[in-house]
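Hi R.,

Here's the chain you asked about this morning:
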Amino acid sequence: MVVASTQYSKVDNYHYIVVFQKRGFSNALFKTEYSIINVEDLNVFEDGTVVTPALLKEAGLVKKELDGIKVLGEGKLEKEINCTS
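And here is the predicted structure, written out as tokens:
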């Protein structure tokens, strides 16, 4: 059970409620989120293509480039491509 106390602060005529946690630790502010694609998705590119994050976004494989892109091992890569970051 998390016990929290509240403190009211007035900033620019708006009231904000600030919650202080008494126990535990939360890393939510510093969490890294990655865009995820599978190896199988890279088969849309031609042989010898240099795949960059901008090219993945342009091809529609990645909607948002968050803190990075993770390529998971689901599927088979049947083309010869170069991936750069």
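One quick note: The two ends are 42 Å apart (CA to CA).

Cheers,
M.
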